[in-house]
Amino acid sequence: EHHRPIPFLRARPAPRTALPADHRPLTARPDTRTPGEGQPRPQRHGDARHRRRPRRGRRRRPPLRCDRHHPRPPPRPAHHRQGRPRDQGHAHHLRLSRPDRPHPAQDADVVALLRAAGALIIGKTNTATMCQDIQTSNPVFGKTKNPFDRTKTPGGSSGGPAVAVAAGLTALEVGSDLAGSLRLPAAYCGVYALRTSRGAAPIVPTRGHIPRPPGWLTSSDMIALGPIARTAADLAVLLDVIAAPAPADGAAWRIALPAPKFTSLSQYRVGIWADDDYCRIDSTTRGLLDQVTRLVRGAGATVDDSSRPVELATSDRLFRRLM
């Protein structure tokens, strides 16, 4: 499936189905409220997860594998204190999963940072084989489908995390991105994702991601880890936790990200890549992109719909070489 022609990319994001009138999207900020503010205690999250563990003998594999190594990790001291738990760390009372992999001897650095911040990691989600595809399927756990239309793909390779956030299983997720593995699933599932910068060193530690054999072309210096969330504000919540030195290096240095140069959309020049002769989009998607263009221009930004960082045909050819 790695060699399918580019029209495979034409699978547009599935339309959202109707939601109940009292539906409240799961975000990181409401989930960090104290129990007195109407939100369930993290301890109850852990207890519920234990009760729902798949029983032995079931023929069908569970869609979400529970984290059995750290079954009940919520930080109790923060549970019984008054005030917002943000004083105890951004990730207190949050529920996350992580892509499925064999049980390692220790946590990856990004997982260790999440645990140290008080996050509840409830399980592991699906990914493409070797994290290398624009869909999410593998021989072990099968195919992950788009939560809004199960006839369509959620994208890949971080399709499992994107589906978990879109379907409301978790408020936040972490994935990896070499050539779109965070951004594609987020776009297909209608959520937010950020491929973090690397520079001389990644701002999110990558140790423990996927060990590469000698001579592997997609070495770790090309891969970046980043957050997936339901809102842009939630991306910032998780980025504050994972954009940090590896736990083993924490005493030696720290990350101090610069403040943004601009604070208003009107100060930015925004590129719009609405369509391309190499891979045409349908009229419905084009109409939505034109609407975005009008909104961005109406907010005062300078819109550039002609400049391209690279031709799409060239990008596709390079992408296939990476795969």
UniProtKB/TrEMBL annotation:
It comes from the Bacteria. InterPro entries: Amidase_dom, AS_sf, FAAH2. Residues 21-34 have a biased composition (Basic and acidic residues). Residues 1-104 are annotated as: Disordered. Residues 104-309 form the Amidase domain. Residues 47-83 have a biased composition (Basic residues). Coiled coil: none annotated. Transmembrane segments: none annotated. One of its GO terms (cellular component) is endomembrane system. Residues 7-20 have a biased composition (Low complexity). Pfam families: Amidase. This is Enantiomer selective amidase. It comes from Streptomyces viridosporus (strain ATCC 14672 / DSM 40746 / JCM 4963 / KCTC 9882 / NRRL B-12104 / FH 1290). The lineage of its organism: Bacteria, Bacillati, Actinomycetota, Actinomycetes, Kitasatosporales.
